[in-house]
Amino acid sequence: MMMMKMTTMMMKVCLLLLCVCRVISARRLQLGSCTVNVHTHELRHHFLSIRQSVVAQDTQIGIRLMKSDILKDVQVSQSCCFLRHLLRFYVERVFGSTSASHMLQQRSTGVLANAFLSIKKDLRQCHDQMHCQCGEQSRLKMEAILASFDKLEPQAAAVKALGELGAVLEWLESFHTSRDASLEAMHG
Q1: What are residue 30's DSSP bridge partners?
Q2: Three-state SS sequence of the chain
Q3: What is the pTM of this model?
Q4: Contact 89, 142 (CB under 8 A)
Q5: Quick one: what percent of the chain has pLDDT higher than 90?
Q6: What pLDDT score was predicted for residue 180?
Q7: 61: buried, middle or exposed (CB in 10 Å: 19+, 13-18, 0-12)?
């Protein structure tokens, strides 16, 4: 009986620590005038759990949706708007078109989709408060991504976009604020 109570108590402590770690792992991203908290580590974890499978399914080797100049050259003032469009693209066109065969891949894809919806909601609030500038550059960059995506068969396009999610996550991580960098240095 005593052993069972200790086990239950240990499980509760572990659950509490897990919840605390998830809260701590959120990163503050500064996208122009908009600040959002994003669990980039969790996004990367779920992407890496499906990456190998997705890359193996990608038969369109010579085609890139997220060309380096598209992500690299987004003006900081339009990063919020561009990210909002990019997340909508992934939620509406990519995650809904993928057919994962393994439960782990289905779960990870679902977690990514839900996380993107959550970030999109935060960005929508910024947009509603006029903190999210949308200009010609954001529209043109999204059109370029969509044009490449639409040239492929739907399943092949979804696989291609999932495989390139790593580039999107790297771009997103580049918006960490200096406050996060100091906290990381203090906590090692």
Answers
A1: 35
A2: CHHHHHHHHHHHHHHHHHHHHHHHCCEEEEECCEEEEECHHHHHHHHHHHHHHHHHHCCCCCCCCCCHHHHHCCCHHHHHHHHHHHHHHHHHHHHHHCCCCCHHHHHHHHHHHHHHHHHHHHHHHHHHCCCCCCCHHHHHHHHHHHHHHHCCCHHHHHHHHHHCHHHHHHHHHCCECHHHHHHHHHHC
A3: 0.78
A4: yes
A5: 49
A6: 42
A7: exposed
How many CB atoms within 10 Å of residue 180?
17
How do residues 42-99 score in pLDDT, each as one tens digit? Answer: 999 999 999 998 889 999 888 899 887 888 888 889 999 999 999 999 999 999 877 6
Between CA 83 and CA 93 the distance in angstroms is: 15
